[in-house]
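Pasting as-is:
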Amino acid sequence: MDFSRISRMIIATVLLGLTSVVQAVPTLTFGGTIDYTASSSTLTLSGALLGSQSIFPAPDFSTSSITLSTSLTSSFSSSGVTVGTFGAGTIDISDGSGSLLTGDFSLAQMGGLDGGNQGALSLVFAPTGGSLTSYFSNPSDLFALTLNLSTLFGADMFLSDFSGIGNGNITSRTTTVSEPGMVSLLVVGFGLLGLSGWHRRRTFGVAGNGNK
């Protein structure tokens, strides 16, 4: 298997694992598309549920849908990382039976390593309705990896339209914890990527020296 692919798999596992405290935490896993429209500064995510944990009965994934919408308020680039900050928005999740979970949030962040097209989206929201409301605490967390974006992270990325893939989960909080920092999550993930790159260079370097 390609080493870079293994690295990405490790990063995805670690970052998604950061959003789950224990195995029994109610969780909805989703996948979909991310679209950003520069003219309106609007970021949307639309897709479907892929799985659930500690929710009975499980939603009907085949008829499910998830939508998220928010607007950019500011962005910054620092130390090789670009982060976009988004304002108030909504989350709506449903299946064939009707509304499963709706919620409001006041802040979301999307960031990634400059020059790359993979990053993360993070927000904290307050559930406001739906049949699964009792499973989710106020607040709850949403975290998604943003993959294969049609643009590269950088200071000017939000000046043009772009799209990509968003895979992540929505998790109920079991204890009061501080709001997850986007930059901290990125440092962990991209730190692992840097470490794997160093390991690859060191391994190839040793092999090359051995062939001399």
